[in-house]
Design brief:
The chain is built from 6 helices and 2 strands. The chain is mainly alpha-helical. This is MarR family transcriptional regulator. Keywords: DNA-binding, Transcription, Transcription regulation.
């Protein structure tokens, strides 16, 4: 019965993928989550902590820790808003921009390994189902 619990398999998949990607990103002083935040910033320049949190559904302390680490490694910069000093925009630095292609390559390698020998229609179905599962649990958590 335990092998049929969906959450268990998702958890195992997540942990193994995380470990694989972390090993590949180690030379850049990054982990998987930090890399994903950098990719988010590539497509969403000058965002604040709340906007990052709304996308990733982390808590504020986690976002702050991630951004601080990225800033310490010179991948991002925080820029104060002239109208409100409490509002900080987060942007990629030149170093952050330059690492994006490496991150994409590593994430694509990982995904290629995960979906090996799985039919395209099954991959699409899995993606749709997982998205719905995330939506379901998120709605339940928020209510």
């Amino acid at each position: 019965m335990l092998k049929k619990i969906i959450g268990r398999n998702i958890s195992i998949l997540y942990r193994h993928e995380y470990q694989y990607i972390d090993i590949k990103l180690k030379k850049y002083n990054l982990n998987k989550v930090q890399a994903e935040v950098l990719l988010f910033l590539k497509d969403n320049d000058n965002v604040n902590h709340k906007e990052i949190n709304d996308f990733f559904l982390f808590n504020k302390a986690t976002i702050t820790k991630i951004i601080t680490s990225l800033e310490n490694n010179e991948y991002v910069t925080r820029i104060s808003n002239n109208k409100d000093q409490r509002y900080k925009c987060i942007s990629l630095t030149e170093k952050g921009i330059n690492i994006i292609s490496n991150i994409i390559e590593i994430l694509q390698q990982s995904e290629k390994i995960m979906i090996k020998d799985i039919a395209e229609e099954d991959i699409e179905k899995i993606s749709t189902i997982l998205s719905q599962m995330v939506e379901n649990i998120t709605q339940e958590k928020e209510s």
